[in-house]
Amino acid sequence: xxxxxxxxxxxxxxxxxxxxxxxxxxxWADSLIESQDQPSQDLIELxxxxxxxxxxxxxxxxxxxxxxxxxxxxxxEILRFITAHPGKAxxxxxxFYHIAVSQGYQVPDRLRFILSAEDDxxxxxxxxxxxxxxxxxxxxxxxxxxxxxxxx
Length: 152
Fold this sequence. Notes:
The structure is a single chain. The protein is mainly α. The protein folds into 2 domains: 2-62, no CATH class; 68-151, no CATH class. It is built from 8 helices and no strands. The model has no long low-confidence stretch (mean pLDDT 94).
């Protein structure tokens, strides 16, 4: 059950930032339902949710998940997403920051970069920093976190 909740948390993050579409979430939920003798009501609710409610149902299914493990597992997909869509990097930074705030700023060492990323993008947007430098730093920080995770 914890594994499913962690996967739901990972998918919720990816869905929130626009890295995956709702139909991918539904396919995941459907495959779990087909593989379980007695799927949970939360999983059924997710699989049958209207488009506008999929994010809410996915977050509900993720309740009780680990906080940082799903984030760490999502990093390779997030890196691919913002490499393909650089303009989405500030949205990712904001999502990371909201997770950090929800955890009282208790962030694993390899993810400490997320504490300043949103501010750095805001400062770049206002012209104080160079956006391409902040983007480059963010990409490199993601790569380092992935490498640290792979080596852990």
